[in-house]
What we know:
Helices cover 12% and strands 58% of the residues. The termini are far apart. By secondary structure, it is mainly β.
Amino acid sequence: MLTQRYQVAILLVVVVLCGCYLLLPLGTSYVLANQLRTYGYSQVILQLGYPGWTHMNIPVVSFQQDLGEERLMISLTDAEIQYDVGLLFQGRVNRILLRDVAIHVLTVHSAEATTGEKQEEETNDEESSPWRLLTAGDLLRTLPILPFGELQLEHLTVFREQATGPLRKVTIDGELTAAGNEVGGHFSFRGQDTGSYRLVVVGKSASTWSATLSTNRPHAAPIVSWQSRSRPTDRSDIQVDGQLRVDVQELAPFIALLVPIGPELEKVTGQVALDWAGVAATEAALGSLWEDEHTRLDGQVRINVTLPALKGVAKDIALAYVGKFTGNATQAEWAMSPGVLLTATVNAQPRLIPDVIRLILPHGDQLVRIENKSVVQGTLYWKDTPIRTVAQGPLQVTYGRSSGPVVATFETARAEGRGNELILVEGAYQLEGLLPRALTERLAAKEAAGKVRGIVRLEQTRIEGVLLQPSSVTIKQIGQGAIFVPGATLNLSEPLTVECDLVSRHCSTGPLVATIWVPTLKIGDQTVTSTQGRLSVQELDTKEINWTASGMLVIDGVTVGGGGAIPAPSHWVTKFSADHTSIGADLQIDLPAYEGVVTARIEQSLKTPYGTLHGTIGPVSFDGAERRLSRFTRAVGPSSDLLEGTISATVDVTWDETVGRPSSDGTRVTSAAARLVAENVSGYYHDYGLRGVSTAMVLRAEGTDSIRMVQPASLFVAAIQSGVDVNNVRTSYQARWKLADPFPVVEVKDFQCEMFGGTITSPGLVVDLASPSSATTFSLRSLDLAKILSVEQQRGLRGTGTLNGTLPVTITSRGMMVDGGVIEAQPPGGVIRYLSSVESSNTLSDSDQHLQLVTQALNNFHYKILRVGVKYGEAGMLDLSARLEGRNPDLAQTPPIHFNLTVQEHIPTLLKSLRLIEDIHGMIERQYRRP
Length: 931
């Protein structure tokens, strides 16, 4: 009975053991899969085979995990663990065979945010990290016995989707062996269409080991060589020395795994050498090694690398660095030897450059050069949170090619960063070249170039700088509205301070003082030339693309119209205020003897061609000495001048792009008006003297092709002097002028003047030299013959009487004509007396009796009829036919005498023809002398 019970118990035990054996792979797979899920892995597939006496198969192991923007996927197929039962109970196996392993790192399009719980778990894991249980002294200990004697890889595939180059997909095989306290291994791997690489690793402790990466070619030089060794010191410290050597050309396929350098791997060259020596306290925990005050690290670095490109960032990259470094628990210090640190062609501006500077710097491929001519030192404060970096020394950064549009040079004296943020930069800068089109268009210019230098300080989001002299800007072809400047050069005279807030994009400047040179300036159809000016800006403020400015511009040596309108030197003062939408300026022009002779207010839109001008001339008073018109303008010429009186004018002009006469830049004058005033002006014009001229006229442009007077204007002239005085001239006139015609059309009404004691009147006429002719009739009333004869320069001719008459006048483009003019003596006539001199009496005594009789009759000739016919031709020929009837009462025996005289002379003007009376004696003598 008892035996049967034992048999049943044994049978149950066997059944249970068999059940456990059958369930062992499934249960173990379930437990391990859940454990992997707790570590953040997903899609876990784990299948274990049944264990044998010497080995166990693992058919499938697969899991994945999201790493930010990438996803890690690992799968093992047909793995095998070989062991001895005796060693298995000691926790070791003989061999681990991995026949097929695949590691894929794929790109995902959306990254899950890390939650606060995960951060808290990571913090807790960090606090419970085994690194805090190890000390620096543990680095001297030999490596622990691994749980396997050999790890063999038959086929391992690693693929990263974001990587470039032939090592984007790598196949690895090899083995890792552990013999006692020494671990050694060798692995071979290759990429797509690449040769095979070999990695050899040998280590005795955590700090004494070496690794060599090379190709499988015979006698191949190492690609990467790492050696480190540790030893205790006399004190309770540990010292670790090491070196790293890298052949960058051979390492190029591996670099392409991390950064996209493109397909031109054969252009990658260079060497990297790193030597270091570190000291740490033996009892310092590895997890807090850098927090221990005894920890110190010193070393030297030498880098010489050339890369063909970093995709999307730069190309033709050359990096050369030689320096030293030292570090402790709180900070690391480094020193860079003189040399060229970096040259590259960049096609993307760094984000740390302020937007204000980005507007000036050119885009596209630009050369960047970083060099230092003396040692540059820096300190890394890694105890600060975030880490703070400070660099001091003359590190020069050049942006742009010398043959390119802009070359920018910046030399830092001090730089400081916190984390990934640049919080402080101090240094000097220089910009030279052409400004980008976006800025020149804001200045309404075609091209702008400059060379500026200064010092700058960038502190977090604020920039403070000083622009130093000599700094200059040259702007070409500035045009807006009716104003066009072919070129202008601005030279800074005094340092200019600038302050900018990068967050609000607000900038302000201190007072700006500069010299400005504008050789020529066109305002409408007038050309203005100058020598040199002085620009002072009291306020200049910008915010984003908006700006405001105010100041004053003073220019000397200004001439208008080549010096014909306003002679040099004239002095121009312009006070202006402007913003991003418009500019307004108050102009004053001074001459040596005339202060404020011209004033104007100009307003111009910077967004459209619309603009206005309101200008005044004078009032200008003349005194006949230094203050005369010829001293004010050369336009009057040497034969004309104004000597006394006052003149003034006002002008209003509006221009736009829609209506009016187009200018060279497409702007059109839409309206224009002017008012001219003369008060009691005296002067001369060729042979005519003018005195007491007063008038006021208002002109206005009609459309784009004509100008007219708004209303008739009155004219008063106190006297016109040209051998014969014409006094108190009064008339009204109105003019209109089609600009396509050479001359205006002038309508004169109600003309009257005083002459020879009488008056001359005319109802008016229209003077249009473009038409065939214009006609009017002048009426002569109550002319005093005595005053007419007084004009005669010949002595002895006197007379009395009153003359009336009419003169039909026709004006053509060729001149003036008088046809059928008549002048008659008013009844009852008058007296003409000719008192001969002694010389003329002796002459007449030798003449015939007829001439003596005529002379005697003219001694006291009482005339009843005096009639003169007047004819004047376009060529200036005057024909006078005179009839004189009467007698001398002193000659009772003499019958009445009738004189018929004809006078013909070429006369410049009608009034001067009266001087021909002095030739009457000679004509009578020629007519009545007998042969």
